[in-house]
Amino acid sequence: MQVLQVQLAVQADPAEVGRARRWVRSRLLNHGVDPDAPIAETVVLVVSELVTNAVVHTGSPAVLRLCFPMDGAEPGAGPGPVGAADGVRESATVGPLRVEVADASQAAPAPRHAGPDTDATNGRGLELVELLCDRWGWYPDGSGKRVWCEIGADAAPVDPLAAVDWAALAQ
């Protein structure tokens, strides 16, 4: 199986998270993925969380990489089917899309469960990654680490309120 890899260098600035999201949307569109498709929404959210973690917790630059498994054809190439509503060719993806973020910290990522505090502004990032991705993990990479996740084409739509335990919050 062939894999198309694209990557973006991200500076140690929280404003870079927005740039990473825009870049991912552009790469997905170039790959033939409808920007309103559930997988696109999921990938953008996961990238936002992983890049935010890398930038905020390390204070150093990071590298974002998308890995598209391919069937041997170029994305959008050839006479493939075209979506009627948006004119975007169907993707040549044959497996899960992989997202990787490499940073300069050797500390293992640790999911924290933020609990019922609805005013909390952090602590849910890796929990979201865990819920939205088929698989995720990390490994040492040079003097830092690489956090990765895989998102299947059948990704569920992003619904941040779906997992809320409303009964527990009401107590």
Automatic annotation (TrEMBL):
InterPro entries assigned: Anti-sigma-factor_SerPK (IPR050267), HATPase_C_sf (IPR036890), HATPase_dom (IPR003594)
Gene3D superfamilies: Histidine kinase-like ATPase, C-terminal domain
Domain Histidine kinase/HSP90-like ATPase, first and last residues per copy: 11-147
GO molecular function: ATP binding
Top-level taxon in the UniProt lineage: Bacteria
Keywords: ATP-binding, Kinase, Nucleotide-binding, Serine/threonine-protein kinase, Transferase
Keyword Kinase applies: yes
UniProt keyword annotation of rRNA processing present: no
Pfam family, one: HATPase_c_2
Entry protein name: ATP-binding protein
Natural source organism: Kitasatospora aburaviensis
Lineage: Bacteria, Bacillati, Actinomycetota, Actinomycetes, Kitasatosporales
